[in-house]
Amino acid sequence: MSDEKDLQQLKKEAAERAKQLAKERLAAKKAAEQAEQSLEAHNDEDELALAKKKAAAAAKAKAAALAKQKAQESNGELSEEELAKKKAAAAAKAKAAALAKQKAQESNGELSEEELAKKKAAAAAKAKAAALAKQKAQESNGELSEEELAKKKAAAAAKAKAAALAKAKTTKAADGAEEVKDEKPSPNQPYLDKYVKVIEEHLGKDVLENAYINKLSKDVPTLVAKKDTYYKVAQFLKYNEQLGFDYLSELHGTDFQTHMEVYVHLYSYKNNQSVALKVKIDRDDPVIDSLVPLWPGANWPECEAYDLLGIRFKGHPNLIRIFLGENWVGYPLRKDYEPYDMGV
């Protein structure tokens, strides 16, 4: 029984000691916090005091600078920057004074020569604008004085003359550019020279009407034969050993209203060269020799030219209308063609 009492007594004493120890620890913690707060307050007071000292020093320095500046002004001594500032202020003050003077002069009717000239120029511009407005109003109402009408006619004539001169210059420049361009020899010129030389040597110089390089058709050498030498030239182009144009690739007719023309394009496989043969024929009686005996490939193209243009080819084995039929009235590719039946 006494042992249980001793154990409880020990527990009670241990609890009291733990409680006392906790109180001591709490008191020590509070004391430490108070000490830290006191230290921080002391530091804040030091920083505040330091900031006050700095502010006082800055104010003192500024006051000293102001005192120095006033002393310099009283002695007539200024730095360059201060002098520039003073000059700028003086200029602004002078400009304001000039503006005030100008306003006073305008109110009193007094102006300088320069200002008077400016006012006159403004008045002239205003008068010109009013005159233009009046002219436009008169034009809209169809009312113009003889003098104004003459002025307008003269201005229109001058404008037309200037436009004509500009156009003439442009045309001249274009013609000059074309001449310069034409001066450049065609790569096919040697072939044309060869064809003409061989033809004239064998057939004479009077069988060709013209010979040229066709710039509009890939620089093809072009021969223009006379009507009565057309077949002879074509035959020579095919059978001459130096030429040998054994293939007819194209044949067609064209109505130029003043005359008709047959165009033939030939090719030489042996020489890998091309030539164009043309002939002009009478539009009222369009008859020319057929080339079918030389190149059978001319058969259908000659029929087509007959069908659409009415060109008749002498010596053609079977010249018929291949598109429109023999009963068709007229030739549709002629420039003066009028349909027989407008509903067709």
UniProtKB/TrEMBL annotation:
Molecular function terms, GO-annotated: NADH dehydrogenase (ubiquinone) activity; oxidoreductase activity, acting on NAD(P)H
Keyword flag Mitochondrion: no
Q: Does the keyword DNA damage apply?
A: no
Q: Which InterPro entries match?
A: NADH_DH_suC, NADH_quin_OxRdtase_su_C/D-like, NADH_UbQ_OxRdtase_30kDa_su
Q: Which SUPFAM superfamilies match?
A: Nqo5-like (SSF143243)
The record's keywords, sorted A to Z, are: Coiled coil, Transport
Please report the name of this protein according to its UniProt entry: NAD(P)H dehydrogenase subunit J
Give the residue ranges for region: Disordered.
Answer: 94-120
All copies of domain NADH:ubiquinone oxidoreductase 30kDa subunit, residue ranges: 225-338
Q: Which family does it belong to?
A: Belongs to the complex I 30 kDa subunit family.
Coiled-coil residue windows: 4-45
